[in-house]
Design brief:
Elements (H helix, E strand, L loop, with lengths): L7 E5 L4 H12 L3 E6 L2 H10 L5 E4 L5 H15 L4 E4 L14 H29 L2 E6 L12 H21 L3 E8 L5 H6 L2 H10 L8 H12 L10 E4 L12
Parallel strand pairs: 1-2, 1-4, 2-3, 4-5, 5-6, 6-7
Length: about 250
């Protein structure tokens, strides 16, 4: 991709799944990369997996003080941040009637409030510098109804509207887009679905399978590149055709 060599990239939730794959892909493009993740063990693991990684910063996106400190550390290490991949997120599979207040608050804290904290912190830095790209992880869950994920669905719909609002206010200095993956075979997905459940889902996806994290990473890299210089305010879906006919909700 054009324009990614030596770009300074910060990825939240970067120690596993889509975040780790995205870090690896940016490194392949010649970018400088730091990740932010709350899982210290996973951070140690990815530093061994990706020796070219700048640093794995341990921080919880639900804590604004930790976010600001982590961002300051990323700026110190890379002398700035050109691209943010705002990717940290969690999900809990359960029935709507069984969601506890504590579970609701936790999912919203990570998936929406945390996204806001990181996005605003990055946007202030980029606005002052005069340029930057913010990419956020949404989901097809934010545009369609899915059972057993009411809290997660609500947060991803929120990320989509946050992205659109940010894009309008931050133009023309900062581009802001969201990526909405469909079903991706990440460790988080694997932990929630049995083999039988995965097979059932695959039958509903026109391409007949889950995406790989690496495929989603490729879209993030494209949107950060100069090849996507006129893209802002939009949600880019990669779902194997899942939402084309609403198949996943049947």
């Amino acid at each position: 991709m054009r324009g990614l060599k030596d770009k300074r990239v910060l990825i939240t939730g970067g120690a596993s799944g889509i975040g780790a794959a995205t870090a690896a892909r940016f490194l392949e493009e010649g970018s400088r990369v730091c990740i932010l993740d709350r899982n210290a063990q996973a951070c140690e693991h990815i530093k061994h997996e990706l020796p070219a990684l700048g640093e794995a910063i341990i921080a919880d996106v639900t804590d604004l003080m930790q976010v600001e400190a982590a961002f300051a550390e990323a700026i110190r290490l890379m002398d700035g941040v050109d691209v943010l991949v705002n990717n940290a997120g969690i999900s809990i599979r359960h029935k709507f009637l069984e969601i506890s207040p504590e579970e609701w608050d936790r999912v919203l804290a990570v998936n929406l409030t945390g996204v806001f904290y990181v996005a605003q912190t990055a946007a202030r830095h980029m606005w002052e510098r005069g340029s930057g790209v913010i990419l956020q992880t949404a989901s097809t869950n934010g545009v369609m109804g899915y059972p057993y994920y009411a809290d997660y669905n609500a947060t991803k719909a929120g990320v989509i509207e946050l992205t659109r609002s940010m894009a309008l206010e931050l133009a023309p200095k900062v581009r802001v887009c969201a990526v909405a993956p469909g079903y991706v075979l990440t460790p988080m997905q694997r932990a929630e679905y049995s083999d039988a459940m995965l097979a059932e889902v695959n039958q509903k996806i026109p391409l007949g399978r889950h995406a790989t994290p690496e495929e989603i990473a490729g879209l993030f890299v494209y949107l950060a590149s100069d090849d996507a210089a006129f893209a802002t305010g939009h949600v880019f879906t990669m779902d194997g055709g899942e939402t084309a006919g609403g198949l996943a909700s049947r």
